[in-house]
Amino acid sequence: IGLGVTPPPGCEVRDATSADGAALETIELGSPIETHGGAKIIDRSGEIIDRYKMMNDAIVVIAFVDGHPVACSGGAVKSAVVNGRETRLGYLGHSRVLPDYQRQGIHSLLLARVGESLNPKVDAVYGILDPKNEKMKKGLADKMPRPYAWRVVIDCNAVQVDTPAVETVTAEQSDNIAMLLNRSHERDLFWSPYSVESLRERLTRVPHRYGWDRLLRTEHSMVGLWGGQERWSFSDGTGTRVRGQVLDYAVLPGYEKEFEVLLRKTAYRALGEGIEELSVMGSDGICGEEVIKSLGTRIEHYEVQGTRFEFDNDNQPIWIDQAYI
After folding, report:
1. Distances (CA, A) of 157 to 58, 188, 232, 316
2. What is the pTM of this model?
3. Scanning 4, 24, 204, 310, which has the fewest C-beta atoms within 10 Å of its C-beta?
C-alpha cells in the first residue's frame, strides 16, 4: 500500500472515532457504488463504527475538505490459514468518496493512511470485490488470480418455518460452538480457528449487535445473526431492500436438515426485526452450500482480490466473514 501521498488543498485526514458516525453515514449515503447495471447505495444506518469493532486492529479514516466530510476508508487485520500457513491478512474495505471530490487524490491519501497502520502488522492484503464495480475493478486489476465467492440472498418473507425446537446459546456452550465452527470450516481458505477464548471475545465486542443471544444451535449446527440492518437502494427501479447478515454458520456432514431448520428460524427472526433479506456468504464446496442455495432467491458473485500471496488450490472453499464486509 503506497505512502507519501500529498493531500489536496483544504483536505484534512484523520482517524475516525465513535463520534464520527453521522459524518460516515453522510459520506456513504452520498457515494453511490457505480456498476455497469446502474448504481446502488448501501446505508448501514449508523452502525459502521460497530462493524469495525468486530474486526481486529481496525482503523477507519475520514477525510474533510474545508471542514466537510467527503471520503472514508478502512482496514483491519484478520489472522487466517492461507495455503496451510497461518497468515496475517490486511483487509481493505468500505472506501467511499463523494462524487464531487473524486479524482483529486483523496482516496490515495486515505489508503496511504490505512497502509501506514496495517503494513507493519500484516503478511498480505485482500479485499472482496463486486465484479460489477467498475472503478474498484480497474484499481485492483491484475493483483492476483480471482477466485469467486458468493452471497446468497434469502427472501425472509418467502421462508416457511416449521416447529422443531432449536436452542439459543449461552457462554457456557462456547466450547461446543467453537468445535462446530472449526470442524465445519477447517479446510476453508481464510478460516481462522476459534479457541474458546477467541470465540467469547468475538461475542462480547458489540454484544447488543452480536452476542450469545444472536446465535441459534442444534446438536450438529449453528447460525449467528448480526443485530443490525443495511438498506440497499438500487437505481434500476427495484427500490430499497432491508438486508441482514449471517456472520457465523456451521453444520457437520450428514446434518444438513438441522442446518436448514436453523436458517429458516433465523430468517423468521430477522423478518420480525424488520429485515426483508438475509445475506449468507461462502463459496462452492463450503459446508451447508446446498441448503443455503436452496433457500436463496438469488446469488451475487464476488471476486477475492489481494497482493503478496497466491492460491495453491483454486477449488478450495473460501470462508468470508461478513463482519469484514
Report:
1. 35, 31, 17, 33
2. 0.87
3. 4
